[in-house]
């Protein structure tokens, strides 16, 4: 789709997407650069998404975990939507820490704590426990270790 004279990556519904390769921390690289392809898959079933996100988090790929969780968030309705949004925010907070942006990391982890505090427990996720973790991790100076998403 051309917008303002610039060709933008869009899906069939007109939502933005970014086909540019990314580095391990999710930063866009030049269009011809090597790197990891962005995660642009349909939402996985909730338990599969949680398992994949945990595996990515545990291997230091918080941005990719965020992408997996965000796909579920964007396809979820009702009160459960807060759970997926909070989990995605938690991963973005970790991503900012990994990139050396402690200010951004703290802000996103605090936002995740607020969102998760209001989220329902589902799929073995204890949102209150993760909200407490995010609030404490927001005060760290170093990159916090990734939490367990499912208890």
What does the model show?
- With 151 residues, the chain is mainly alpha-helical.
- Helices cover 46% and strands 3% of the residues.
- The protein has five helices and two strands, in the order ββααααα.
- The chain has helices at 46-58, 62-73, 81-98, 102-117, 127-137; strands at 2-3, 6-7.
- It has a two-stranded antiparallel sheet.
- Helix 2 (62-73) packs antiparallel against helix 3 (81-98), helix 3 (81-98) runs antiparallel to helix 4 (102-117) and helix 4 packs antiparallel against helix 5.
- The protein is globular.
Kindly state the number of beta strands: 2
Q: What is the share of helical residues?
A: 40-55%
Cα distance, first to last residue?
43 Å
Record the strand order, biggest sheet: 1-2
Helix and strand composition category: mainly alpha
Biggest sheet statistics: 2 strands, antiparallel
Looking at the structure, what is the overall shape? Answer: globular
Give me the strand/helix succession: EEHHHHH
Outline of this structure?
With 151 residues, the chain is mainly alpha-helical.
Descriptors for this entry?
single chain, 151 residues, mainly alpha, two-stranded antiparallel ribbon
Secondary-structure map:
Blueprint: E1 2-3, E2 6-7, H1 46-58, H2 62-73, H3 81-98, H4 102-117, H5 127-137
Antiparallel strand pairs: 1-2
């Amino acid at each position: 789709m051309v917008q303002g004279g610039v060709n933008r990556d869009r899906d069939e519904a007109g939502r933005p997407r970014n086909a540019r390769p990314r580095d391990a921390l999710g930063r866009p690289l030049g269009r011809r650069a090597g790197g990891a392809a962005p995660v642009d898959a349909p939402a996985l079933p909730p338990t599969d998404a949680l398992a994949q996100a945990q595996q990515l988090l545990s291997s230091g790929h918080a941005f990719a975990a965020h992408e997996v969780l965000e796909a579920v968030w964007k396809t979820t309705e009702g009160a459960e939507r807060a759970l997926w949004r909070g989990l995605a925010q938690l991963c973005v907070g970790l991503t900012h820490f990994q990139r050396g942006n402690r200010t951004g990391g703290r802000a996103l982890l605090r936002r995740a704590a607020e969102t998760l505090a209001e989220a329902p427990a589902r799929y073995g996720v204890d949102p209150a426990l993760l909200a407490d973790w995010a609030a404490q991790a927001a005060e760290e100076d170093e990159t916090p270790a990734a939490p367990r998403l499912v208890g």
